Recover the amino acids of this structure.
């Protein structure tokens, strides 16, 4: 109908008695969503095409002979829509009853329970008791390969997974077989979705418990998980994610929608690399080396020792990690500059190739497998070592000046790394042989345990928040480094990550005008032309 | 200030005599010796008659093959107001969801019975039972095996003939 109307800027319609003004071409479902009115739906997903086949989003449009599927019906000027009229509600109740005709109602053992759309909708508007007396058809469960497990009985045939594989991953592996009430999702080949690098997303978009993650199977209930917005630390794409945490352990990573970075998706490579965040072997206390032996010390004592030994002027070199936050790296740069300047090296792993997502070209698993290499490069740090993030530090092993290591675990270095250094300061999260030689060891939290920012490969500053509680004594590196700076008379001691970010502007002029508050959850592009790193 | 003297009256012998009170007390004692509806229970030789809705320590129901009925759905630790249930779910070799760890801290438990009420598979029950004494405190954290071994009767949380207590 819209092609017959005059082109106009906006369309005004009435949904449930409320006037809504939206751009033309918007669907009723999207228009309703913009006012907070969520029309129940299964097959519609903002990242996929809408086949209008679940029949759950049907709404009453005045003048239309039948109920209209709101996910594909475009808005018209003066349209009057009722989403909660007797007719629309009765229809939803009927559709939901059909969905439950073959549903096993195994919520107690279903991993989706608590975040299941069928559970939600039936609880809200469904019938209290089923009337079906016929036996339910039973499919049992099927291994779809990779991390995906399929429970056919729970499926509502929304075909989101089929459309994701066809349209977004563009790797058709799933299809609907059989017809009518025997129809079921199945794989084309024996190995299912195995080897498809983005297949984990079909678990996220499945509105019910039909597709579940093997890794997460029976691990935690959805309502026990705390969700913390964060940034995937596994490549320089910087996908927006949520850390799902229970008992101070990351249980799974889920993508967080950000249309400019990752849409609704994330890759399986990133999704499954979170176990290191739950490591228990941690540096828990500051250590000070006395008479060749590292002894636990109070923070005050460790910092006094450090400041005392920094007073003597010496050449300085440092090792940084592209897994540290922007605030931490900038603080390190400032400390090194304040102590006379010296080179800062970093090592970062690199993959052989990018893994693009064809249906969403902005997103790819980048070659660069560290989240914050861009910051290190902007700060003039030099990348050394091989594609596994090893080697390259041989020249530092026998260095005799002041040596600062931030974040890099030095796992491949000998136990006598840095033994010759006049002062060896190690700031890290995990103990290692090379860290054991340090004169002063200061424990820092991992990115999952602190607030901060990463700058991804395209130059987007993105914030992450603490989802885990780190060791009691661990402090983000900008804190002790800020103490050093304030003692050296360079700047004030930052009291929060936001202040540390502002202080970072001194060595990162690209951050000018940005603040934690203005970056928000969507990120902000640096004030400079965008260069894509790693290509 | 002049000292004032308050004159106390000595009570009559009739008021202070204990003879009448003693006789009254002994009369009550002898009456109870022959009272047919006495309430004293010769525990432990005599066991009390507990209400079928008595809520005591827990018991886990088992299948005929010895597996616990629990499917580790996580509703009891969620509903538990005292936060005394610890549950770790997993999958057994037949693909059934089951509790790898199921522990109830009976010290923390307030015996509200909500775990039994919420259980979708009627696995966990509070029991008609009160003899819980142990020699060590850690024995009061009942693990899954211990809960499955319990053989006391389980509670009827409500009267089946009057479920709403009307």
């Amino acid at each position: 109908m819209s092609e017959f109307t005059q082109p106009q800027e906006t369309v005004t319609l009435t949904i449930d008695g409320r006037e809504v003004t939206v751009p033309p071409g918007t669907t009723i479902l999207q228009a309703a969503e913009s006012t907070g009115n969520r029309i129940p739906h299964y097959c519609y997903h903002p990242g996929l095409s809408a086949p209008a086949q679940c029949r759950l989003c049907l709404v009453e449009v005045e003048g239309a002979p039948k109920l209209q599927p709101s996910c594909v019906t475009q808005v018209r000027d003066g349209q009057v829509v009722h989403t909660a009229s007797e007719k629309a509600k009765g229809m939803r109740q009927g559709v939901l009853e059909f969905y439950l005709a073959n549903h096993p109602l195994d919520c107690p053992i279903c991993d989706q329970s608590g975040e299941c759309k069928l559970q939600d909708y039936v609880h809200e508007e469904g019938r209290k008791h089923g009337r079906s007396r016929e036996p339910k058809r039973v499919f049992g469960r099927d291994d779809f390969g990779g991390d995906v497990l399929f429970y056919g009985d729970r499926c509502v045939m929304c075909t989101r997974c089929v459309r994701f594989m066809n349209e977004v991953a563009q790797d058709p592996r799933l299809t609907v077989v059989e017809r009518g009430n025997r129809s079921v999702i199945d794989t084309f080949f024996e190995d299912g979705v195995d080897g498809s690098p983005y297949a984990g997303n079909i678990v996220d978009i499945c509105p019910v418990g039909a597709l579940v993650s093997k890794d997460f199977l029976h691990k935690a209930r959805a309502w026990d998980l705390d969700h913390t917005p964060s940034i995937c630390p596994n490549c320089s794409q910087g996908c927006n994610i949520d850390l799902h945490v229970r008992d101070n352990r990351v249980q799974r990573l889920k993508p967080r929608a950000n249309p400019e970075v990752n849409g609704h998706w994330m890759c399986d490579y990133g999704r499954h690399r979170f176990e290191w965040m739950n490591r228990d072997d941690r540096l828990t206390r500051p250590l000070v080396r006395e008479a060749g032996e590292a002894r636990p010390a109070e923070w005050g004592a460790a910092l006094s020792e450090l400041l005392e030994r920094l007073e003597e002027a010496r050449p300085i070199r440092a090792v940084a990690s592209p897994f540290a936050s922007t605030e931490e790296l900038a603080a390190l740069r400032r400390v090194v500059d304040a102590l006379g300047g010296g080179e800062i090296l970093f090592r970062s792993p690199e993959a052989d190739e990018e893994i693009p997502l064809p249906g969403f070209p902005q997103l790819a698993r980048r070659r660069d497998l560290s989240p914050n290499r861009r910051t290190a490069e902007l700060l003039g740090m030099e990348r050394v070592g091989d594609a596994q993030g090893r080697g390259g530090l041989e020249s530092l092993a026998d260095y005799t000046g002041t040596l600062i290591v931030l974040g890099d675990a030095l796992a491949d270095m000998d136990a006598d790394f840095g033994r010759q250094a006049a002062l060896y300061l190690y700031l890290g999260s995990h103990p290692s042989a090379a860290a054991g030689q340090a004169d002063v060891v200061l424990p820092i939290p991992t990115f999952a345990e602190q607030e901060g920012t990463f700058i991804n490969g395209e130059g987007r500053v993105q914030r992450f928040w603490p989802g885990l509680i780190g060791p009691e004594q661990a402090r983000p590196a900008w804190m002790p480094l800020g103490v050093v700076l304030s003692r050296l008379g360079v700047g004030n001691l930052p009291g929060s990550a936001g202040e540390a970010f502002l202080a970072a502007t001194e060595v990162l002029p690209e951050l000018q005008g940005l603040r934690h508050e203005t970056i928000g959850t969507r990120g902000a592009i640096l004030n400079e032309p965008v260069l894509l790193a790693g290509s | 200030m002049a000292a004032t003297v308050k004159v106390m009256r000595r009570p009559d012998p009739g008021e202070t005599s204990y003879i009448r009170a003693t006789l009254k007390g002994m009369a009550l004692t002898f009456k109870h010796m022959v009272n047919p509806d006495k309430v004293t229970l010769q525990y432990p030789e005599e066991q009390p008659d507990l209400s079928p809705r008595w809520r005591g320590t827990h018991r886990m129901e088992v299948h005929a093959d010895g597996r616990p009925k629990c499917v580790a759905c996580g509703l009891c630790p969620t509903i538990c107001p005292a936060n005394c249930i610890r549950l770790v779910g997993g999958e057994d070799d037949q693909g059934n969801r089951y509790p790898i760890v199921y522990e109830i801290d009976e010290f923390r438990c307030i015996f509200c019975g909500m775990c039994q009420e919420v259980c979708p598979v009627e696995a966990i029950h509070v029991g008609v039972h009160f003899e819980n004494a142990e020699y060590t405190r850690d024995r009061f954290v009942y693990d899954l095996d211990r809960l499955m071994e319990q053989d006391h009767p389980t509670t009827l949380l409500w009267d089946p003939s009057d479920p709403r207590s009307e």
